[in-house]
Amino acid sequence: MKHFSVQHSLAELGQPFSTACLPTPVAAPQWLAFNVELATQLRLPEQYWRSDEGLAVFSGNVVADWANPVAHAYAGHQFGHFVPQLGDGRALLLAEVIAIDEQRYDIQLKGAGRTPYSRGGDGRAPLGPVLREYLVSEAMYALGVPTTRALAAVLTGDWLQRDTAEPGAIITRIAKSHIRIGSFQFIAAKGDIAQLKTFADYVIKRHYPESAAAENPYLTLLTSVITAQAQLIAKWMSIGFIHGVMNTDNMSIAGETIDYGPCAFMDAFNPAQVYSYIDRQGRYAWGNQPKMASWNLTRFAETLLPLLSAEPEQAIELATAALLQFNAENEAAFLQLMGEKIGLKSATKDDEVLIRDLLNLMSANSTDFSQTFRLLSLSVANTTQGAAQLFADSSNWQQWANRWQTRLATQGLALNEVQQQMDATNPALIPRNHQIAKAIELANTEGDLSLFNRLHKALQTPFTLSGENADLAQPPMPEQCISNTFCGT
């Protein structure tokens, strides 16, 4: 393995961008999980792989000689209300490493204790949210969605008081960076344009280096982030994923899925579906995610106005024109992804009606989102088979299926080729809410990680379903349905 290459570029920016802070030691750490495949990609020395030395580092009990822990400062709009200072209240960036792909990645402890940004919190994470983030983030990676990843999870040996006493845990997560829209809001709110420029230049160099040579680097930065978010949200939508808390402090500049709190994959399709216990108004429902991403990006554009042009009116015009591209880019990406889900290699604008009508039919019949698309490949040769069994309204299903088959025929592809492409696009396995809840319950009450480990292994190959994992693919029974998920604060 090539040499473990460590850098600390964010820490070197110093105040106000981050603050040095040490993790708080824990009582009796134990390994919960360790990601050997990811450790290999990061060139992490094997002395830290499920060893006592690694346990000490990833529990925060020892600061490795290669670490320089800092808490990142950011602000954010939380459910539309601006909070000028949030920051890493329970997370610490240990280091940035250059991985096998020659890209830079953060190594961050989450749940490592109080920081200067904890705002009265204990800086810890309960076991349940750590297991949820580990499972869902790794599942998203396997599904091809840009995401933070889970390197390690440890039990702390301490108990946390939430609604009830819960075991504490720490997750080590990996990201291209943990810089958010809220990071720019924090600097912009200070009114120091020199600091804003310093930070924007840093982000350009780190994430969008091609922007540096543009006529207006900061406008190109804005358009690059818009494109990344437009594509990311389309991917979320195409797999029925609901982030749950799309506040500006939870939206990554790098276009990765970050901050897995009350997230969930839909069971029965409903565009207004919300799982987060705190989202009582449906702000971040499945169908609202593009609109809210656009809203967040507008807040990002506002922070860049002083850099876009010295003339305020021109800056607004440039930002507005850039933001108008979000809907077009998001809709184009969503159309292509959804087209692939129904067997179309290249969807056109004319296919939007076909896709929309299927979604409306799914909503009216409350069919399971993932199961419908997975079984759809079995309907390619016979529209009375496969997904047909899920629709109580068989007449409208058959009308739609006939139109769909007519469209498939225009491609001139063999039926088995269409089916293979659909099975490689539509996952057989997703992190089912009721299965995650059961895994968390077993871990919390009995210290039993068997279901967690089984889910983690199965979700690494989501497009392949073995007989031994067939139960994990099944939608919940009515009594198993999860209506609320919770963040880990």
TrEMBL record:
Enzyme class: transferase
Binding site for Mg(2+): N250, D259
Residues noted as binding ATP in the record, renumbered to the chain: G87, G89, R90, K110, D122, G123, R173, R180, D259
ATP-binding found in the keyword field: yes
Entry annotation: catalytic residues: D249
Catalysis performed (reactions): L-threonyl-[protein] + ATP = 3-O-(5'-adenylyl)-L-threonyl-[protein] + diphosphate; L-seryl-[protein] + UTP = O-(5'-uridylyl)-L-seryl-[protein] + diphosphate; L-tyrosyl-[protein] + UTP = O-(5'-uridylyl)-L-tyrosyl-[protein] + diphosphate; L-histidyl-[protein] + UTP = N(tele)-(5'-uridylyl)-L-histidyl-[protein] + diphosphate
HAMAP family: SelO
Physiological role: Nucleotidyltransferase involved in the post-translational modification of proteins. It can catalyze the addition of adenosine monophosphate (AMP) or uridine monophosphate (UMP) to a protein, resulting in modifications known as AMPylation and UMPylation.
Protein name listed in UniProt: Protein nucleotidyltransferase YdiU
Taxon lineage: Bacteria, Pseudomonadati, Pseudomonadota, Gammaproteobacteria, Chromatiales
Gene that this polypeptide is encoded by: ydiU
